[in-house]
């Protein structure tokens, strides 16, 4: 961010179980399984209602904010001093507090230790391909980087019907795993 805030709790990929909900939260209840997403959706702004954007006016990625929107205060502290939030998720902790618009409810039978990568890496790569690049059936697609995001982008290309997917990565060790994928 432009104005780093410290101390703060980092982390943005996770899976969890809702322990409690705040006043006015209707979409979730205690016991629901969720994935945090740092590009949340208020469901009311023009971006949230558009099929072409997910840059919510209220909950877009904001690395400088560090506090809850409702009252401008952190929900974390140590010895009375605030510890700031990170991109609205702060998942490197046993417990966190997240705006309801930054949580996606998932099937409770999905193993949280496996599906946690859906909260960023997989959704980012797959979404970039399916929602932004939108390759046509039979097209050739090049994917730069063969980590989780890149492999998800390649899967998006496959799902779109690309006839050729070219993987490019500086780390030659990733090619064998990418071929298996």
UniProtKB/TrEMBL annotation:
Subcellular location: Cytoplasm
Keyword Nucleus appears in the UniProt entry: no
A GO cellular component entry from the record: cytosol
Entries under InterPro entries matching the protein: ADH-like_N, ADH_Zn_CS, GroES-like_sf, NAD(P)-bd_dom_sf
Record bears the keyword Thylakoid: no
Keywords: Cytoplasm, Metal-binding, NAD, Oxidoreductase, Zinc
One example GO MF annotation: S-(hydroxymethyl)glutathione dehydrogenase [NAD(P)+] activity
Enzyme class: oxidoreductase
Cofactor(s) the protein requires to work: Zn(2+)
PANTHER family the UniProt entry points to: ALCOHOL DEHYDROGENASE (PTHR43880), ALCOHOL DEHYDROGENASE 2 (PTHR43880:SF40)
Family the UniProt entry places it in: Belongs to the zinc-containing alcohol dehydrogenase family.
Protein name: alcohol dehydrogenase
Organism name: Eriobotrya japonica
Gene (UniProt): ADH
């Amino acid at each position: 961010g432009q104005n780093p805030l410290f101390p703060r709790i980092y982390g943005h990929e996770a899976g969890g179980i809702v322990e409690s909900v705040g006043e006015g939260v209707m979409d979730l209840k205690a016991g629901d399984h969720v994935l945090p997403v740092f590009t949340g959706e208020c469901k009311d702004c023009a971006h949230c209602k558009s099929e072409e954007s997910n840059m919510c006016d209220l909950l877009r990625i904001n690395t400088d904010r560090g506090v809850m929107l409702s009252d401008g205060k952190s929900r974390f502290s140590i010895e009375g001093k605030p510890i700031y939030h990170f991109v609205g998720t702060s998942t490197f902790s046993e417990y966190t507090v997240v705006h309801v618009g930054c949580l996606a409810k998932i099937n409770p039978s999905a193993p949280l230790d496996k599906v946690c990568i859906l909260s960023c890496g997989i959704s980012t790569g797959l979404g970039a391909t399916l929602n932004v690049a939108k390759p046509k059936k039979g097209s050739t697609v090049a994917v730069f980087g063969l980590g989780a995001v890149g492999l998800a982008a390649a899967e998006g290309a496959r799902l779109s019907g690309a006839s050729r997917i070219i993987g490019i990565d500086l780390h030659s060790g990733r090619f064998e795993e990418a071929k298996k994928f």
